[in-house]
Amino acid sequence: MPSEPPRRRNAAFTRAAILQSAIQHFARAGYDGAGVRDIATDAGVTAMLVNRYFGSKEKLFAEAVETSFATPVFIASESEDLARDIAAALAVHSAPGAESVSAFLIMLRSVSNPAAVRIVRAALARHAGRRLSDQLPEPGRLLRSDVALAVMSGVLLMRQVIGTRALSRSSADELETLLESVFSAVFDTPLDSRGDAPRTGED
């Protein structure tokens, strides 16, 4: 009985599988800790095929970061009450046991690599930073945006990664109330007229 011809690999499916595996590995181990061979194994392909699709580990990392940061989690493109909406989303997504935010974990666990930091910084500016700053008042909208992003990162770190006692045990309502006050102050406090440096999404 003649054997069946080998099935052709679906390129789009394979690429997506590699990218999803990469996001998981970079979120778990950071840029330096994630290996192309391990990413390939979990995607059901060879390391050679990963390089064929993405060119290099750095390019794969850049695409994993881009995909992770492009998905809105805390900041919608339009919000009627920005401080309240971000506070509510952060209270939910930072809760102990909540599904971890891959973009945050990739950022957190890749800070030791300068090339990875440049990639993360650019993606952060293009996506979360731009979605937020486009809704903020002048003067100082970029500064307000960066301060708010720093607060979000700090809450995720202290509540979900480190698990400090008070934050871990706080209710969503309690935390949301406090965070809304913080974000309202960041967004609405009058500043002088000094301009922001332009945000281009690149170094």
TrEMBL record:
Alphabetical list of InterPro entries matching this protein: Homeodomain-like_sf, HTH-type_TetR-like_transc_reg, HTH_TetR, Tet_transcr_reg_TetR-rel_C_sf, TetR_C_16
Q: What keywords are annotated for this sequence in UniProt?
A: DNA-binding, Transcription, Transcription regulation
Question: Would the keyword Transmembrane helix turn up in this protein's UniProt record?
Answer: no
Establish whether keyword Transcription is in the entry: yes
Which SUPFAM superfamilies would you find in this protein's record? Homeodomain-like, Tetracyclin repressor-like, C-terminal domain
Give all residue intervals belonging to the HTH tetR-type domain.
12-72
DNA-binding region as annotated in the record = 35-54
Q: Name one GO molecular function term.
A: DNA-binding transcription factor activity
What protein name applies here?
A: Transcriptional regulator, tetR family
Q: Record the organism.
A: Mycolicibacterium gilvum (strain DSM 45189 / LMG 24558 / Spyr1) (Mycobacterium gilvum)
